[in-house]
Amino acid sequence: MVILMGRSLGVKEQVMMQDVLDSSNSEELLKLIIDIVQYTLLIEFVGAMLLTMGFYSEDFEIGQALYYGFYHSISAFCNSGLALFNNNLEDFKFNPLIHGTIAVLIVLGGLGFSVMQEIYDAVKSKKSFINFSLHSKIVIVTTTLLIAFGTTYLFFGEFLHAFSDYSLWGKFQVSLFQSITTRTAGFNTVNLADLHPHSVYMMIIL
Questions:
Q1: Mean pLDDT over all residues of the chain?
Q2: Which region, left, alpha or beta, applies to residue 6 given φ > 0 means left and ψ of -120 to 50 means alpha?
Q3: Quick one: residue 159, left, alpha or beta (phi over 0 = left, psi -120 to 50 = alpha)?
Q4: Is 188 helix (H, G, I), strand (E, B) or coil?
Q5: pLDDT for 120-160, tens place per residue?
Q6: Does an H or E element contain 197, and which?
Q7: I want to staple 93 with a disulfide (CB 3.0 to 4.6 A). Which of 24, 66, 87, 189 is the partner?
């Protein structure tokens, strides 16, 4: 925020930011902060546009669709999980453009900038996953395993219960979204009161 306002960081703030962002000097720190801001704005803007299209397809007026799109994009990427609807996102459980975009934003926000940067560089240079830093390996593997576990648990645990009226594809969509959002945000596409107690306990653990 200080940089966006055109002000410079004080010595204390520079030392603190260098420590947090693992940067060795002020020039590298400034470049890193600018990159983080650019990445954040770009990802949230793309997410907002996709969500706007999703809400527009749900018969919202274009102005409402834009407002909901930008709000929920920022909310998802920042992992706040705050929705503007009384029943959260339950009305959009079968709209992949909405819940899919929000799920991706949650994951990207949860991975963090350094991991996203390394993934981006790896894609450009075709670097193998084995050459990733230890930090990125731990974050990516842990995130993937927890999402997979939560999705599988909810899919089979609620197959004949809360998700009994859904198609197989519907069950998978809801299970995947709830697994992702349980760990990092607070969105929901199903009424959590309908879930088995063991599913709720599993979600608390995640």
A1: 89
A2: left
A3: alpha
A4: coil
A5: 889 888 888 888 999 999 999 999 999 999 999 999 999 99
A6: helix 197-205
A7: 189
In this structure, the chain runs to a length of 206
Q: Which amino acid is at 143?
A: T
For CA atoms 123, 126, 130, 134, give the dihedral sign. negative
Distance of alpha carbon 115 from alpha carbon 133, whole angstroms: 9
- Per-residue DSSP letter, 119: H
Q: Which residues of 18-33 are buried (b: 16+ CB within 10 A; e: fewer)?
A: beeeebeeeeebbebb
Nearest to 185 by CA among 74, 90, 52, 92: 74
Q: Is the pTM of this model over 0.70?
A: yes
Q: Each residue of 46-98: pLDDT tens digit? A: 999 999 999 999 999 999 999 999 999 999 999 998 999 999 999 999 999 99
How far from chain centre, in Å, is Cα 40? 12
Specify the amino acid at residue 100. Answer: G
Record the tokens describing residue 80, joined without a space.
């706040």
**Amino acid sitting at position 84:** L
pLDDT over 60 at 117, yes or no: yes
Output the six-digit token pair for 185: 């945000």
> Other CB atoms closer than 10 Å to residue 48's CB: what's the count?
23
Which 3-state string (H, E, C) describes 37-73? HHHHHHHHHHHHHHHHHHHHHCCCCHHHHHHHHHHHH
